[in-house]
Amino acid sequence: MASAAPSAPVAAPPVTALATPVTGTGDNGSFAGTFTPTKFGTQGKDLVATGLLTGTVSDSSGATVGTVTRTVSMPVTIAAVTCEVLNLVLGPLHLDLLGLVIDLNRVNLVITAVQAPGNLLGNLLCAITHLLDGTPTAGGLAALLNAILAVLGRL
Length: 155
Fold this sequence. Notes:
alpha+beta; 2 domains; 17% helix; 51% strand; elongated; disordered N terminus
């Protein structure tokens, strides 16, 4: 659910490359448009994205009823996280074991853990891998995402 934010000016111009399609249907019609984030913040312990929602509202027959352009805030969820557990690179290997010759070309072994609900081993290995990293707060993530938006806005 999107909620309307106060009509204060948005912190930065939208980075149009980050526009995300937004669609929805209801009993009386539908909405199709885009959401372009302009800043990130927190509501309690949750991370939220504030940005520009633009689109078209249509009735149940498909006829355009109106357009929407407004600043809204939406909750942000973090998708599955991957953690590199091991990246082992072995160069070429030549072994001569009493007449048994073994030649091995370059080997690159990468083990990655995927953190998501139900991935018990992936969750455990990611937790161990990041044991000393500290847990980022929603405010810390918002600050990092705002810095990324600022850099993208200058491109």
